Amino acid sequence: MFLLAGQAPPADRQISPSIPSSVQRLLDQLGRNPIAVHDACWNTISWNPLWAALAGDSSGLRGRERSIAWRHFAGLPSRVTHEPDQLACFETAVVSDLRSSTVRYPGDRQLRRLVTDLREVSGRFEELWQSHVVGFHSADRKTVHHPHLGPVTVDCDTLTVPGSDLRIVVYSAPPGSRTAQQFEMLAAIGSQDMCTAETG
């Protein structure tokens, strides 16, 4: 709103980890699909049981370890792989997203430190950051390498919540497909014996 009005955002504005009740209901009601909510730093701040069972339970992660951006560009373990063209789109969208967040939250120290450290540890991030490239999150396909089920290929959509800086990531599959059957198996198995989070 500030930018649309030609005004600078408040310098002390901070990224909020809170989730509107309507978004929480969405997580609760879409139990047949893995779904997670991320903030403007791409920290995973909420998820449903099927997400934990497929991508890993983030409850044991602290601080920056919950940031999808940090985990990806810093080379931390992940169960997720992309096709080369989709990987490029994903990386471009994340960097562009973080750049926009720094404009909206100029005083958020966590965000500033995240960007600074990413530029230091990742040549790819620095390249994209310096290029001022603009990217958008679009529907794509990912493969999640589950420790018990093997590769699970999902359709991935990133949704935004009007009036907030939340990103909702939803994994889905066509009805009757092998992936849909794997979702059903995961719903029955749960995240037992799958405590290590390698989200993406």
TrEMBL record:
<dbReference type="Pfam" id="PF17765">
    <property type="entry name" value="MLTR_LBD"/>
</dbReference>
<feature type="domain" description="MmyB-like transcription regulator ligand binding">
    <location>
        <begin position="20"/>
        <end position="186"/>
    </location>
</feature>
<protein>
    <recommendedName>
        <fullName>MmyB-like transcription regulator ligand binding domain-containing protein</fullName>
    </recommendedName>
</protein>
<dbReference type="InterPro" id="IPR041413">
    <property type="entry name" value="MLTR_LBD"/>
</dbReference>
